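Bench notes, bay 3.
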Amino acid sequence: MLHIRCCQYCEAPKRHVGCHVDCPEYLAEKQRMEELKQKIKIERLKRQMTEAYFSKRAAAAKEAAKERAKK
């Protein structure tokens, strides 16, 4: 799980209600977090597409082998 940790030890007066709106450290870390999440999402989709492709190919090969065995 990814966590934003820049606010973990932040105390008043720097930390206040609504400080995430104007805190440059938080905004920078949030931006990096979103970029990392996007990269993870893309890699996950690539892996799922590859796995689906090869599982379909394997199923088709098994089906073809069954058909050849029948003849």
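Next record in the batch:
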Amino acid sequence: MRLLILPLALVISGQAYAQNRAEPRSVTVEQVGDALSNPTVQAGIAGLVGVFADTVLDTRIDPVAHYTDRVRPGDTLGDMVRREDPRFDEKLQNGTRRAVALAGQLTRDGAAMGTEIGKTADKLQALLEGTATLVKAYSRGN
């Protein structure tokens, strides 16, 4: 899991370099969706989530061992979790990648829906304007 830190560091350093340019570059919703769908970005984000998880899982919990038989002396939260689910790290990585991929797809779909909603809003606006014209003409006639 820690080997994924290198790709993540490269992604972050590339972004930092890009931010140091004189002219900022705008990012479209489609570009965000594409980036989140990129397996390299997914792996980097999964690596970052793994680092955060490892930090939390390194918490020693043996001081509360007397409350349960699931905790052994010297245990960390990670020891307990991994004992109960030996595939925890793999599942965390795969689940994070899937979640990021889904976020990418939702972003692209949301952008497409935004376009469609915009078209519908334009049609409704035209319909409302036409209706307002009819109501005004009718009101003048009475």
